[in-house]
């Protein structure tokens, strides 16, 4: 499937009538906060890397699009928050260091860390002919879970890892951490389900109000079932981790040194997960889903307002937890030593 990234480039050039959003957001904060799974808890159990609106905090209710003063995303009406666990490298001497996040080559240069966010309609090549209903104020969901085992990744075909030769490598996608150091770093992919029950903005497990019919990432989903009949945007995150600076101290005994911030004791990355809190202003996301724009052609008011990389990078959320997360650490933030 090496042709994939070429196909994407071609489509962007020759098919301007097809709609999809792909855009960069720089890091808005790295903190132990989780307003979806552990609302009100300061600090939360594990460290997250977060992009989007600067209202991000332990508790978030109501219309997020009306909260905060700036966003780290290209689209300046998007005050949503998007987050995942943070990747750490475990030294053979027992210390941990946070793996820095690097920017995606497919995006404008200079974005500070962050993620690439997608809202596609059918797949990478077409918007299909279905009406896509935008998420509503107050909507939130998660995909994956820190407690899931290997069966979780068999079920969730949208949770994947790519060992990068360079920043443009996209295949193969694998379902656990690579077993050797990667020349160009590691990419994590999180594809969310896109069929909504039409009623609940959230559910007790933050997942059962949604249903996944996508066979694998960026492919057309089967029809939504009657229990979850409303087709919503196909949301996906890509995060590029700069593991290369650890390649010279990679263990030679075959053990895996990568560990997610939630502990991830099995060391396979099975617990990979992501969270989403909708926060587009007004009807901006619905306007985009109704339009025929593709990727950067949706910027500059056609139909979405956009901002420069400098403005994106200037936006930050308040640090309410204040703990050391960088340099060599004795333990993962929030975890007892040696775990
Ligand atoms: C963040 O949330 C905590 C707990 O809900 C609250 O005490 C604090 O005032 C909030 N901080 C900001 C900057 O809003
Ligand atoms: C492990 O190695 C790193 C890098 O050399 C060093 O900074 C850190 O202090 C070491 N940790 C322990 C527990 O020796
Ligand atoms: C989007 O399209 C639907 C169906 O055609 C229409 O009812 C709705 O008003 C449109 N919304 C916006 C914001 O353009």
Summarize the structure in words.
This protein is mainly β and 339 residues long. Strand 5 and strand 6 form a beta hairpin. Bound molecules: 2-acetamido-2-deoxy-beta-D-glucopyranose (NAG) (3 copies). Pfam families: DUF1996.
The structural class is mainly beta
Question: What small molecules accompany the polymer chains?
Answer: 2-acetamido-2-deoxy-beta-D-glucopyranose
Beta-strand portion reads: 15-25%
Order of helices and strands: HEEEEEEEEEHEEEEEEEEHH
Mean pLDDT score: 91
- Poorly predicted parts: 1-18
Shape: globular
Contiguous helical run count: 4
Organism: Glonium stellatum
Protein name: DUF1996 domain-containing protein
Keywords: Signal
Domain DUF1996: 34-280
Question: What's the topology here?
Answer:
Blueprint: H1 4-14, E1 20-25, E2 27-31, E3 48-52, E4 81-85, E5 87-90, E6 96-98, E7 101-102, E8 115-120, E9 140-144, H2 150-155, E10 159-163, E11 186-191, E12 195-196, E13 210-211, E14 230-231, E15 234-241, E16 258-260, E17 273-277, H3 284-290, H4 309-314
Antiparallel strand pairs: 1-8, 2-3, 3-4, 4-17, 5-6, 5-16, 7-15, 8-15, 9-17, 10-11, 11-15, 12-13, 12-14
Brief descriptors of the model:
4 helices, binds 2-acetamido-2-deoxy-beta-D-glucopyranose, 5-stranded antiparallel β-sheet, mainly beta, globular, disordered N terminus, 17 strands, 6-stranded antiparallel β-sheet, 339 residues
Brief overview, please?
The protein is mainly beta. It has helices at 4-14, 150-155, 284-290, 309-314; strands at 20-25, 27-31, 48-52, 81-85, 87-90, 96-98, 101-102, 115-120, 140-144, 159-163, 186-191, 195-196, 210-211, 230-231, 234-241, 258-260, 273-277. A hairpin with a 5-residue loop joins strand 5 and strand 6 (96-98).
């Amino acid at each position: 499937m090496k042709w994939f990234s070429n196909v994407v480039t071609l489509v962007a050039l020759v098919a301007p009538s097809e709609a999809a959003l792909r855009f960069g957001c720089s890091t808005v904060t790295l903190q132990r906060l989780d307003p979806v799974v552990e609302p009100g808890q300061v600090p939360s159990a594990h460290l997250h890397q977060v992009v989007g609106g600067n209202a991000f905090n332990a508790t978030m209710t109501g219309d997020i699009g009306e909260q905060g003063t700036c966003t780290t995303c290209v689209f300046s009406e998007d005050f949503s928050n998007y987050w995942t666990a943070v990747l750490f490298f475990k030294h053979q001497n027992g210390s941990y260091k946070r793996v820095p996040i690097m920017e995606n080559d497919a995006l404008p240069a200079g974005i500070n860390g962050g993620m690439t966010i997608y809202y596609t309609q059918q797949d990478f090549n077409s918007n299909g002919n279905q009406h896509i209903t935008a998420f509503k104020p107050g909507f939130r969901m998660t995909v994956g879970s820190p407690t899931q085992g290997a069966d979780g990744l068999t079920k969730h075909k949208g949770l994947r890892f790519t060992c990068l030769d360079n920043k443009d490598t996209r295949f193969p996608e694998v379902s656990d951490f690579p077993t050797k150091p990667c020349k160009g770093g590691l990419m994590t992919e999180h594809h969310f389900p896109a069929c909504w029950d039409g009623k609940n903005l959230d559910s007790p497990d933050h997942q059962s109000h949604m249903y996944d019919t996508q066979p694998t990432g960026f492919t057309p989903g089967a029809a939504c079932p009657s229990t979850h009949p409303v087709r919503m945007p196909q949301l996906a995150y890509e995060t590029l981790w700069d593991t290369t600076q650890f390649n010279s101290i990679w263990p030679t005994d075959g053990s895996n040194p990568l560990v997610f911030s939630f502990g991830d004791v099995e060391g396979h990355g099975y617990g990979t997960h992501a969270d989403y809190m909708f926060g587009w202003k007004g009807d901006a996301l619905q306007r985009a889903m109704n339009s025929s724009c593709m990727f950067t052609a949706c910027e500059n008011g056609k139909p979405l307002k956009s901002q420069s990389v400098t403005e994106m990078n200037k936006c930050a959320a308040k640090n309410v937890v204040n703990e050391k997360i960088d340099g060599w650490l004795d333990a993962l933030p929030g975890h007892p030593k040696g775990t």
